[in-house]
């Protein structure tokens, strides 16, 4: 069944790319974008607004996951993709055409949980979270959790871990943080979009993660900040590299990026997790567009370049209105310059 669904998805994608669209008697350029489901609401909003301004350009976003999006672009299928992790160097070198990775917005991965009877905000550290996701801490009143939350009345309830299925950027960002926090987690699980989780139940889509945590007492999982806020889920404060417990917010995510902007090269492959800064939220990251440096044809290349120009001006303003922290000005200028090279 899974194989059949993949075949159907590939056929639908091919038809979407090839199918002509007519707008007011003119052929419309259809750009097919695949990738992460986390920023999907923002990308859909961008696509709708851009189409209103440019009726002859239509974008179709397919939320197949960061790994699938990268695979489409690397193999020359689809126009560009969205993802929440840098593409591995080995895969970039094997691409059919050079691929550019462009940060779009900043995101924070938040630890969400369902634990009735406790205060709404628990404290977590990287080593303790690593042991939870390794299956070494199995109950909510474990001494390590009590030490971090001395004022909370943590019940003797089993911890039920929920994690994403393979190929998800949110898993990469979380495991990147946990791998920096715990040598054992780095050795046993590592940082990956498709980690071999020792324990826990799967959640295929972002909404599946939200639904599972909402529905079951004792659960713990992870998702993007804006999604958690809209679902009114409980979120933990995370201890950062300076020893401060920081609540996830647009401000604390922006602080994490600002503290490391100077490290960014024109490839933008830097990790923001567990970085410096007293106010930095430690599970912060970029989310990227993966874009072929040269499009399939000149018409599509022009359409992609014009869309990216809009994204990094009007689109960025819309993202801030939706609660996403802005890219630091210095970094945004570098990204816009890199995007201008695409054709």
Structure description:
Strands 1, 2, 3, 4, 5, 7, 8, 9, 10 and 13 form a ten-stranded mixed sheet that branches. The protein has a three-stranded mixed sheet with strand order 6-11-12. The chain is built from 13 helices and 13 strands. The protein is of the alpha/beta class and 343 residues long. It is 41% helix and 20% strand. The protein folds into two domains: 2-106 and 285-339, Periplasmic binding protein-like II (D-Maltodextrin-Binding Protein, domain 2, 3-Layer(aba) Sandwich); 108-284, Periplasmic binding protein-like II (D-Maltodextrin-Binding Protein, domain 2, 3-Layer(aba) Sandwich), CATH 3.40.190.10.
Using brief descriptors, characterize the structure shown.
D-Maltodextrin-Binding Protein, domain 2; alpha/beta; 2 domains; 343 residues; three-stranded mixed sheet; ten-stranded mixed sheet; 41% helix; elongated; disordered N terminus
Q: What would the CATH topology of the largest domain be?
A: D-Maltodextrin-Binding Protein, domain 2
Number of strands: 13
- Which sequence of SSEs, written as H and E, runs from N to C? HEEHEHEHEEHHEHHEHEHEEEHEHH
What is the CATH homology-level superfamily of the largest domain? Periplasmic binding protein-like II
**DSSP helical segment count:** 13
Terminal residue distance: 39 Å
Largest sheet, if any?
A: 10 strands, mixed
């Amino acid at each position: 069944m899974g194989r059949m669904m993949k075949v159907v998805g590939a056929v639908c994608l091919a038809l979407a790319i090839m199918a002509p669209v007519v707008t007011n008697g003119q052929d419309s350029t259809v750009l097919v974008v695949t990738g992460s489901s986390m920023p999907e609401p923002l990308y859909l909003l961008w696509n709708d607004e851009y189409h209103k301004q440019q009726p002859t350009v239509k974008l179709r976003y397919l939320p197949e996951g960061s790994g699938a999006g990268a695979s489409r672009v690397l193999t020359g299928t689809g126009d560009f993709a969205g993802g929440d992790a840098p593409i591995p160097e080995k895969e970039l070198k094997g691409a059919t055409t050079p691929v550019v990775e462009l940060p779009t917005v900043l995101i924070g991965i938040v630890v969400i949980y369902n634990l009735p009877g406790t205060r709404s905000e628990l404290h977590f550290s990287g080593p303790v979270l690593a042991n939870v996701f390794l299956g070494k801490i199995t109950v909510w009143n474990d001494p390590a959790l009590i030490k971090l939350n001395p004022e909370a009345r943590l019940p003797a309830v089993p911890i039920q871990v929920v994690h994403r299925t393979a190929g998800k950027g949110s898993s990469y960002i979380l495991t990147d943080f946990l791998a920096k926090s715990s040598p054992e987690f780095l050795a046993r699980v590592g940082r990956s979009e498709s980690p071999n989780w020792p324990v826990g139940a799967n959640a295929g889509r972002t909404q599946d993660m939200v639904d599972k945590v909402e529905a079951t007492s004792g659960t713990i999982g992870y998702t993007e900040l804006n999604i958690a806020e809209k679902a009114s889920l409980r979120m933990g404060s995370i201890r950062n590299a300076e020893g401060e417990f920081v609540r996830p917010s647009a401000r604390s995510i922006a602080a994490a990026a600002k503290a490391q902007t100077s490290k960014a090269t024109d490839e933008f492959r830097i990790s923001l997790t567990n970085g410096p800064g007293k106010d930095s939220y430690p599970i912060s990251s970029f989310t990227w567009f993966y874009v072929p440096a040269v499009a399939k044809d000149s018409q599509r290349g022009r359409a992609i370049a014009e869309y990216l120009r809009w994204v990094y001006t009007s689109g960025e303003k819309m993202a801030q209105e939706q609660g996403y922290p802005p890219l630091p000005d210095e970094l945004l200028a570098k990204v816009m310059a890199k995007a201008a090279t695409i054709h």
